[in-house]
Write a structure and sequence with these properties.
CATH topology of the domain at 80-242: Immunoglobulin-like
CATH architecture of the domain at 80-242: Sandwich
Radius of gyration: 50 Å
Order of helices and strands: HEEEEEEHEHEEEE
Number of helices: 3
Strand content: 35-45%
């Protein structure tokens, strides 16, 4: 076996490194695994969310209970009217001429059960026998605060021998011919009212009927010219017509 060291003519090899191997095959990628589908199981709500829902439910329930109570307490109520006293003087009835003269002195008590102030304007009072108006007059405007009671003094005069129809004459004579000599008159009160605390600035009509106000003449004869309210108890009145009936609590 020979060695290159012993070869007198050694062979010298020259050249470049062999070029790198290139392949047209794409490199292999790791396999694609799609994400799992969403689970139908929802995680339970957190304690904070549960507390908020319970608090909202409690607030809604309290509002539902509070609104009707506040509405009932603050809702305006119709005032209470009564004839506390009534006297008639100078009562002269001419049956043949169908003429009447008299002077009615009335005290009307008005009580407000409301919490807010009430205003009364264009107040009128009238005295009737049956459905016939004997006298009518305007009264002063007034207002009432919380729970106030006001006494309206009205003097209604039938002067100049007012003509009355035959039914009125016969009815009064029949009433005075009874044992107590009491004649039943009717009192009417009409007014515009305003409830600024509850119903804004609108005005509403109020019509009050005080029927069967019995005036007892002293001697129980047709000659008596003076009489006063029969009994000591006030005659309560009724509000028969009010355009606030849908929103007021009619007592």
């Amino acid at each position: 076996m020979s060695s290159t060291a012993d070869d007198p003519n050694p062979v010298v090899v020259t050249g470049y490194p062999a070029p790198a191997f290139r392949s047209n095959v794409a490199p292999l990628l790791p396999p694609f695994n799609p994400p799992p589908p969403p689970s139908a199981y929802a995680p339970p709500p957190r304690d904070d969310d549960t507390f908020v829902l319970i608090a909202l439910a409690v607030i809604v329930l309290l509002c539902m209970l509070t609104v009707p109570i506040v509405h009932h307490v603050l809702r305006p109520r119709i005032p209470e009217f009564a004839v506390s006293s009534a006297c008639v003087t100078g009562f002269i009835l001419s049956a043949q001429q169908q003429q009447l003269s008299a002077s009615f002195d009335l005290n009307l008590t008005v009580h407000s059960p409301n919490r807010d102030r009430i205003y009364y304007e264009h107040v009128t009072a009238s005295v009737l026998y049956a459905s016939d108006i004997l006298s009518e007059r305007s009264l002063a405007s007034f207002s009432q605060g919380k729970g106030e009671t006001t006494v309206l003094r009205a003097r209604l005069a039938v002067l100049g021998r007012k003509y009355v129809n035959s039914d009125v004459v016969r009815g009064i004579e029949s009433d005075r011919g009874r044992g107590d000599g009491a004649v039943g008159f009717n009192v009417r009160v009409f007014s515009w009212v305003r409830f600024p605390g509850a119903l804004g600035t609108s005005w509403y009509t109020l019509s009050v009927h005080c029927d069967g106000v019995l005036i007892s003449f002293r001697n129980g004869t047709n000659a008596a010219t003076t009489g006063c309210l029969l009994g000591s108890a006030p005659k309560k009145c009724v509000v028969v017509n009010s355009d606030t009936s849908s929103i007021l609590n009619h007592q």
